[in-house]
Amino acid sequence: MAGLSSSCCRGQHPATPAQCRTISPRAGPGPTSSARGRGAGCTTPQFPSSHPASLPCGRRGRRTAQGSLAPSTSSFSWPGWHPRMSRGDMAKPLLGHRSMEGDPSSMPAAGRTIGVLGSGDFARSLAIRLVCSGFKVVVGSRNPKRKASLFPSAAEVTFQAEAVKKTDIIFVAVFREHYSTLCDLADVLVGKILVDVSNNTEINHHKESNAEYLASLFPACTVVKGFNVVSAWTLQSGARDGNKQVLICSNNQEAKRTVAEIAQVMGFTPVDMGCMSSACEIENIPLRLLPAWKIPIFLALGLFLCFFTYNLIRQVIHPYIREQKNKLYKIPIEVVNTTLPCVAYVMLSLVYLPGVLAACSQLYYGTKYRRFPDWLDQWLQHRKQIGLLSFFCAALHAVYSFCLPMRRSHRYQLIETAVKQAVEKKMNVWVEEEVWRMEIYISVGIIALGLLSLLAITSLPSIANSLNWREFSFVQSTLGFIALVISTLHTLTYGWSRAFDENQYKFYLPPTYTLTLLVPCTVILAKVIFSLPCVQQRLLRIRRGWEKGRYVKFVLPSATGEYSSGETSSNV
How many structural domains does the chain have? Predict the structure, then answer.
């Protein structure tokens, strides 16, 4: 649900580690472009639309790179004859993609020896992955005889000093506290590449990162930070989806490129995070617990507590005080089931409200270049999480509603109603209005839940990456707004005429559904106003670069001939 608001909000958010460039292991970083306008996260290389070798040749001329027909260098040509490329040219790729995925020649040499210092779970998983990727692995351990059985038979397990002498690239898979035990190897480690894979136990636990500390202990070595965001399980099971990225940083470009090549062969996607000063940030990433979900979760919990308290007063406390009836049994199911749709409905409207506020800001200031306030910018960045929590609450509401007839209290109420009808000798209790109301609001609610499910599915990275920007915007923006409108119809048909019944005002408190309508109706009304041609055209001009109060006057050159229009100046 990241694209649930207007396109005016694109480009307002800071970059994340996933948005850094992907390393092109020998050619270095190339030109990149976003996968979906400015709304996508990762970047991919841009390819030219054509290649000189693939352009069609004519009988008496050839196509230039610009697409124009150049004169032929030969005065004679056989009829129907076309130039053919040599076998060497046919073997070359048409697109000049220099990434390791498209250029096998840039892969590291097969059988390259990689060293691993350490014998823990991560070291064992790393050795297994390296062996499966075709590398020769030498594991350095303080007790090789005891640890040899834990590693694959293809890996050589020996003492640390012997392992260091056999390779130039060494993965240091030991904790920071044990770095000092490697100081005896300082002489044989000179000129080696050390890959630090360790993490801290707390965020910013030390003043300097583990990689910087390792570099200070071994100044004659080249230290590269990497593979710390990959778990031991991922190394054993293989790279999949979100676990494919390996964040790498170092002050030495060649060493960083070498480690990137190894990661590429292992099936991961290396991401260049810059110099060694980024190591602290990389080490903090695995320690963060849902950083983008904290504000949305607190928002959802706050709304839940507010609506739960409000419904508790109306459904439990009011009957006890006024009628001396014990309704505490309603708390686990009925009160919760009345609260969940309120939270889901309001959260869904809060997904679209920041887009409305952003559009109002642009219309007021007459420009798109004025930055939004920090609170609005944060709100815009959390729309996806807010929308997913809205779907979660709506799904729980559907499950709770499905379970309502299973309760023992509901069965007792049915028996009590049947006995009362028998005593009063009522043969027909059919109420046409109530029947239609129930049928309509359940049907509309199912449609709303279906649309929310579609929005949640398209929020998955694997699905979102398969859509272009127009498709993604249509699903998240257009269908999302339709889901909000249908949810409003579901709420209105549920309430029906209860807002005009004085018996529904317990302790002078209005029905709960009337409170939930405030924000969604405001959003819908604003969207209707923005769809008016006069407002829509102005907003579209602003988002395309027009600014209020700024004009440029230019004079057209004197035009002669058939294309002359008679205009000499214009105001833009």
Answer: 2
